[in-house]
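Dear colleague,

Thank you for sharing your sequence with our group. We've completed the structure prediction you requested, and as agreed, I am returning the results in plain text so they can be pasted directly into your records. Please verify that the sequence below matches your submission; if there's any discrepancy, let me know and we will rerun it promptly.
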Amino acid sequence: MCRPRVGEHKTRASGPSVTPCRMTILDGAAPRPGRGYAIGAPALRWDRSAEGIIADAERLIGRVKEVYDEIGGLQLDAVSVENTLRAIANVKTEYAACRHSLDFPQYVSPLEAVRLASAEADKRLCDLDVELSAREDVFLRIAALQQKKLPENVSAEEKRFLGRLLATGRRNGLHLCTETREEIKKRSKLISNLSIEFNKNLNEDNTFLVFSRHQLDGLAASFLSGLDVDQATGLYKVTLAYPHYFPVMKRCRDPETRRKMETAFHSRCKEANTIILERLVSLRAEVAALLGYGCHADYVLEVNVAKNATNVDSFLNGLQKTLEPVGARERKYLLGLKKRECLMSGRRFDGCLSAWDLPYYMNRAERRQFALDKDKLVEYFPLDAVTEGLLGIYRDLLGVRFSRVQAAPVWHPDVRVYAAHDAHTHEEMGHFYLDLYPREGKYGHAACFALQPGCEGPDGRRRLPVAAVVANFTKPTGGLPSLLQHHEVETYFHEFGHVMHQICSKVTFSEFSGAMVETDFVEVPSQVLENWVWEKEPLRRMSRHYKDGSAIPEALLDKLIASRAANTGLMNLRQVLLSKVDQSLHTSSSADSAAMFAKHCQDILGIPATEGTNMMASFDHLAGGYDGQYYSYLWSEVYSSDIYFSRFKKEGILNPDVGKEYRRVILEAGGSADGMDMLQRFLGRPPCLDAFFRHKGLKRRLDAAR
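Please find the predicted structure tokens below.
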């Protein structure tokens, strides 16, 4: 991630290591017209009541346990590829398809009762995951199969799948004594439940502040027109959702308004989630110790490209050292801007930058250094034009054709559904949902959710993948269409990169479908495509003025592209900061998360954390699968930069031959090969850091700082 991103991805299913092999349609009925929409998965429905979600979850759990017992009851000398390995693969596919129609509504349903029921179903299914991952009997059957001589027709992917199951079993402690396994199981269930509670608290947070027109000085009229106004007091209601928070922090001239917003934003769920997070840190450390690891970070990193916390620490320290002189120059420049503004406005200059100053003066620096008029720029990025351009670029580059599906049932009227087909063979590849506007109770960031894996089903036919992009772009209001800031366009491309990873996947097993790769490789396919929003030809294709359809003026395009280098040092140091806090938390057995964040904030950014806040209490990556792994955004950007500059930039950013090779080598392979092997195959050599610094415009900045 080259800058603090509006959101994250969510692509990993939290399913069990081994699951049973029989599934039937939920509710015991065949799908009826209007009840559900998915390719090859009737369980993907969005019309369930709260009671129906819980009932279906219990039925799913019951059937899974029953068949799991059958697998674990096989005689050790009777295990085979068919009754063990392929049976496990089949049930993983069916389980994932059934599960996501139950646990996804907690993030998107407009009904609070449904969201709460979905979160409860998620808890129960996570408990099931833990129980199944602790079943020694199934692990012994897998180990027995591994000891046998496998048939000659067993594929390389099947061998990799068998190895993955064995390794996962050992990482679950199934080789340990019964007492230790029970301790791991107990703690793992608690970790799952606490993680769900952490995110549920954030999803349900509806904090807002009220300000007068004067207190919102500097905000555009189009922004103000979209706010709710109390008719009695004339005060504007400003929520902490991204479409409100970031414009206020970047544009509001009143430092007190920014201070109140920043304090509220980093105090969301502070009391409840601080307790949860610090309990999670302790529990994860306890599980790692029971499994024989020095810390939780070493445990989770073992299966990543990075391998251990020492390598991650070395990477982050080296990057921090490189960036510090650039960040120091930028900080000095921002402080000068603040001093001048204070003198002109008559406010007292306190001689320092506060957390609520940083986004405001970074925005001012960008405008001053690059003369980029963002108020004018946003007029050229209506959401429909961006979507049209995005789909066209991915079509031409990757050979995928998209069509709107008009009659598909959805969870909210704002949601759109698309089908993807191979542009040459016309073969159907999968479907995806776009849920792009904010609403109360909805997931508050931008993310890609994998709803159904693309893999071989139990009947031998390919099950098509389904994904969803969930975002919070400004909704059309007051006669204006949804207009995207350029960083939102970049976010859109990023999340759609995850969709393409899911849709293009061509694997046998759900275990390797789409983004089921190493965590520090999973961002590569989405980060690569971010680069297209900084190139003229793609920018022209995804933009037009919302009033007259005119193109972005050439001078404005030049300024936009040049502005990519704005505040590069501080933006990337913030990513180092978050990565180091994450590593510090997960190399410890206990932690004061607020104090740890404050220390790293001062040490790395040179700016104090706001007193009384705890950013970590709303940092959902730490309860969403990135615990000990937030460094992955920077780590994988080394790879994505190398891919872009070494192949696409060199051979043509819209070169369909390069795009076809990229789709085949990186996207279609999913997790069926190691990330580093795929990378070297596409590059023709090991990756290097040169493109990473070039991508960020840092080479010139580093030379200047020296």
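Summary note from our side: The domain at 18-171 is CATH 1.20.1050.40 (Glutathione S-transferase Yfyf (Class Pi); Chain A, domain 2).

Kind regards,
the structure core
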